[in-house]
Design brief:
It is a single chain. By secondary structure, the chain is mainly alpha-helical. The chain is globular and about 45 Å long. About 60% of the residues lie in helices and about 0% in strands.
Length: about 140
Amino acid sequence: MKNVDEASIKKLLWVSIMWLLCHDDIISGPLTVTEVHEKRSSDVENLVSELIPPANLILAKHHNVSQLDSTLSIGSVKEVIEYMEAYSYSMPNAIPNKLLAIDEFSQRNGCLLSIDGSPAQPLHTHFVQRVVGNIPKH
């Protein structure tokens, strides 16, 4: 079950990051998920780095662990990015639906932003504000 939980949290990071970066440039229009990896890899890496700690907290909370157990981790930045790339390249022309992402904000980005004990997420918050205009209730 642990592996399923880790995969689910990695998918949460994918859905929370990719829609933001796909829809970040309103002048040129949205990017596909593969274009994000090709053109915005540093943003992907920085967001993954920032969001792994809250993602690990969600995993720990799901397993009723009060403090982070070193065995409960979704993986390294490199491992998470490799997962995200594999998932993205399985549907290379996909562009996440922005309206759906905003509608499901509390189940996506909101989970990461609202987890107790999470460090600040300035880059995540920056992209949400830039793409949405404000942070939806979560």
